[in-house]
């Protein structure tokens, strides 16, 4: 059963689209969008469908700047502040289940930066933008040090770069995919749900 809601945040209202599984949930999966995109990106929709079918509550968060009709992203601190406020409400609405946060591109960065603050058990980073195109010296690899199990799913043709795996970071490379991960969103979602199952955050 899907529904959407507006949540007040210190940076203005955020919209949350929530889909509920049949039966008791195994996890709460909260997803954010890319900088200029929306929560209806193909990879986010495919992940929503697969995760709900596997027993997760899935909440897709539209940041306040997008709700207000702006395409230019807000500063990182504003994004993190709004996201953290939304997560506090979602955790209260869905208590007693593990929280997994994630998103695509900019949304993945927000999820990584705030994972500890919101008490996440894991992070899903789709198309994590390791660096601006053509600027490998401006690496954002430090944001992947979330302190919790983190799954990165990137295309091998992504101009934003390919993160390296680490002690708690698994990197899955999707052949032929670019930054939008539009080639095989169902396959990308299957990778994520398999990882969720490994950790007990989805039904088998």
What does this structure look like?
By secondary structure, this protein is an alpha/beta fold. The protein has one domain: Alpha/Beta hydrolase fold, catalytic domain (Rossmann fold). The protein has five helices and eight strands. Helix 1 packs across helix 5 and helix 3 crosses helix 4. The chain is globular. The mean pLDDT is 96.
**Mean pLDDT, rounded to whole units?**
96
Report the uncertain regions. none
Distance between the termini: 21 Å
Q: Please tell me what the overall shape is.
A: globular
Compact description:
This protein has 5 helices and 8 strands; from the N terminus they run βββαβααβαβββα. It has 204 residues and is of the alpha/beta class.
Structural features:
204 residues, alpha/beta, Rossmann fold, eight-stranded mixed β-sheet, 8 strands
Chain-wise SSE layout:
Layout: E1 2-7, E2 14-19, E3 27-32, H1 42-53, E4 56-62, H2 64-67, H3 76-93, E5 99-104, H4 106-118, E6 122-126, E7 150-155, E8 169-174, H5 185-198
Parallel strand pairs: 3-4, 3-5, 5-6, 6-7, 7-8
Antiparallel strand pairs: 1-2, 2-4
Helix pairs in contact: 1-5, 3-4
